[in-house]
Design brief:
12 helices, alpha/beta, 8 strands, globular
């Protein structure tokens, strides 16, 4: 059994801390500006894992603007040497994602409703429109041993629908919270995300979170939102690493996670 896989019920009982998965897309984006092969995505992932990251995330888009198909396979080989860590591949299952699921068989796949040319992920699934199309693809991912997480807005009413189509987890799209952090709307956003997480847990789903989470806003989020099993952080973490280096940055994010859990009531 993968020691990183804990159930929604475990988190409702307070068992287990939030795991940190580092998204290395921005390392690949920088590398792709030249033809020298640097910085190395595999080396960056190795440094993150050595520093205590719990997993690695990639989001290979069809145009390969950052992560390329070869990176997905190279990282899969790397992670075989890190059985305690988890590989999470994100993407739109109606585009190029399922080929990677079949070939690589990661521990987790996150279905994201991006268009092919979309600048960055900016909304969750509309399951009333897409749920039935997603259902067989979720089942296929399960057949390869992958946990399936759906990228979702903080809408409590949608959580039961996510479970009904077969998802194991949801990844809450956190940009609205990040944009409100430090403003009068912060409490409102935290309440909305807490309600969505509670609804997900009640539906039997695990809860992940990601998009624009960073060191200043992560502690407040994890203190307020129950049962978050994993955060996937890329842009801010890589930006911080330009100043402090990847190993120290990973350790800093893990300190934020520990601080949040230590501050929560038992």
């Amino acid at each position: 059994m993968n020691p990183l896989v804990t159930s929604a019920a475990d988190h409702q009982r307070g068992v287990g801390a939030t795991l940190l998965s580092v998204n290395v897309n921005k390392v690949a984006l920088l590398r792709n500006t030249r033809h020298l092969g640097i910085p190395s995505v595999v080396r960056a992932a190795t440094l993150c894992l050595e520093a205590g990251a719990d997993g690695i995330t990639v989001h290979p888009r069809p145009d390969e603007r950052h992560i390329r198909a070869q990176d997905v396979h190279d990282l899969a080989r790397l992670l075989r040497a890190w059985p305690q860590a988890e590989y999470n591949i994100e993407g739109n299952p109606f585009h190029n994602l399922m080929a990677f699921v079949r070939d690589v068989r990661p521990q987790q796949v996150t279905f994201v409703p991006d268009s092919e040319g979309q600048f960055t992920s900016d909304h969750g699934w509309d399951l009333a429109a897409d749920g039935e199309r997603l259902r067989p693809l979720i089942a296929e991912a399960h057949s390869f041993g992958a946990r399936v997480s759906l990228f979702m807005d903080a809408d409590p009413a949608a959580m039961a629908l996510a479970r009904a189509v077969g998802a194991d987890r949801v990844e809450l799209y956190t940009e609205p919270y990040a944009a409100a952090h430090g403003t009068p709307r912060q409490a409102e956003q935290l309440a909305a995300f807490a309600a969505a997480a509670q609804a997900a847990l009640a539906a039997g789903l695990g809860v992940n979170a990601g998009h624009d989470l960073n060191q200043p806003n992560l502690v407040d989020f994890l203190r307020a939102v129950p049962g978050v099993q994993e955060v996937s952080i890329g842009h801010a973490l890589i930006a911080d690493a330009l100043e402090t280096g990847l190993p120290e940055t990973v350790r800093a994010y893990q300190r934020c996670i520990r601080q949040a859990h230590q501050a929560r009531p038992a």
